[in-house]
Amino acid sequence: MSGLSGIGVIWAFSSFISSVALCVGYFMPYWITGQMFIQNNGKSGQTVPVSFGIFRRCNYPAINDDGQIEIVHECGRYKTFTDIPSTSWQIATLVIGLACCLCLLVSLTAMFGVCVKGVVIPTVARTAGILQLCSGLLLTAGVGIYPNGFGSPEIQQACGNTSSSYHLGDCSLSWCFYMTCAAVGVTFVCSALAFHAPKRKQVVGGYAM
Length: 209
What we know:
There is one protein chain. The protein has helices at residues 6-27, 87-115, 122-145, 153-159, 175-193; strands at residues 32-38, 46-52, 56-63, 69-77, 172-173, 203-204, 207-208. By secondary structure, the chain is of the alpha+beta class. Strand 1 and strand 2 form a beta hairpin. The longest helix has 29 residues, at 87-115. It is elongated and about 75 Å long. The model is unreliable at 202-209 (pLDDT under 50).
């Protein structure tokens, strides 16, 4: 029997859905989409679609064995943390990653509370709400600082020389960015719902039921 109120059940499922959305948005390299033009030794060039996440990218240039620039048609993370193209993106990687871990921990606890009575007691609920509030603030900071890295050379290769801090140039924001922003909003709502998650004890004849 669940120890959660009706609001608590809504909180649990909303927390789980938002945490999954945050983790998907964090991992998938579709925050920015653009195009990159590659030309070697006067040959006819090619334009390929590219996309970037926080610490991953799709369709990126590399030097082959002949010393020519070629496009690697795959998605992958940067080899090292320092290879992430800007300090702002490095900070966003750490901050959003930490927030995702906290949100996932709270959501799993909440879902466990749906199935098992006595897991989400008032103290646990308040702690969960505070953790979700902190996660929301971390996520807001991470998403807010991410556009500060739009002026890095790697982004300018895909978005044009007009791209700069908080100006994306010829690129556009993609679905992962918007999904993450929506999940941040749900996280803040869940932080408020958490305080009403446990069932209130009913008092009958002077005894708590």
